[in-house]
Amino acid sequence: MSSESPSSAKKLNLERASNFMRQFRDPDSRELKKLSANQFMEVWSHYDGDGNGYIEGTELDGFLREFVSSANFTDISPDAVSDSMLVELKACFMEAYDDNQDGKIDIRELAQLLPMEENFLLLFRFDNPLESSVEFMKIWREYDTDGSGYIEADELKNFLRDLLKEAKKINDVSEDKLIEYTDTMLQVFDSNKDGRLQLSEMAKLLPVKENFLCRQVFKGATKLTKDDIERVFSLYDRDNNGSIENEELRGFLKDLLELVKKDYDAQDLLEFEETILQGVEYSSEGKISRKQLTMILLALAKHNQEEEPSTP
After folding, report:
1. Residue 126, SS3?
2. In 10 A of CB 55, how many CB atoms?
3. Is 196 strand, coil or helix?
C-alpha cells in the first residue's frame, strides 16, 4: 500500500501540472481569481500555441477541457471531459463568447470570459468599436507623434493613458502599472515582435465596427446601385464637404487594403494609395469625388466578380 502512495501522489502532481488553468482558481471556492495583465498574457500565450492570434481547433479543445476540469474540487485530468461532452460544451461556449461567430476565440473574446483587473479590461474598449476607419486614422495620426509610421512603446503608453483618463480611471493606475499594461498590449498585438505596432496591428487593438467594403454588394454578387455608392461616400465624407480627403481618404484606403492584405504598415498604405489613385484621374489636391469613388467601387466589384468562379 505504501508503494502505491508515491506513484499516486506523482500522478496527482502530473495532472495538476498538466492543467494550466488550475493555478488561477481559488483553492477553496474553485472560482477564477482576478487576473493581472501579466497573468492574462500568460494564459493567452499558453493556449495560442501557434501564436496566430486565435485560440482555435485543438488549442480551443485543450483550453475548454482544462477550463472545465480545473473547476472541480478534486484534481481530475482534463481528459475526464469526454469527446461528446466537449462537443456540447464547445457549442454552448462559442454561443456565449464567440461574438463575431468565426468559430475561434480572439484576445477580446477571451478577455470577456476571464475575470481581469477592471482598468486593464477597459483598454480593450469592448463596448466601443470605432464607427469607421476614418476615426481610426485620426487616432493613428494623433499618437504617431514622430510620424514614423509606427506606434512605438512610449506612444502606445500615451494612448493607453488617455484611454484611462477618458474613463476617469487614470488616478487609479500608477506609472508602473501603466508600463505593465503597455508591455502586455505590445505582447498581445505586436504580431511580428518588432517592439512597436504597425497599422494592421493597431487596427486589431482598436477595431472598427464594420469594414463596409466587405459587404456582399461589393463582391460582385449584385449590381451596385447609386444608393450603395452614396452610402459609402457619406460613410467616409465625415465632414460632409463633398469630397473624401486626408484621414477620410486614408480610412477608405485602409478598408480597401484590408480586403487584399492581412498584415500591412504605413508604407504599404502609401504605395497602395499611389496605385489606386493613379487610375482615377486623381486631383493633386489629395481629394476624391463621388465620380472617382464610383470608379474605384465598380472596379472592386468587377475584380471580385472575376475572382468568384475560381473559388472552390
Report:
1. coil
2. 25
3. strand
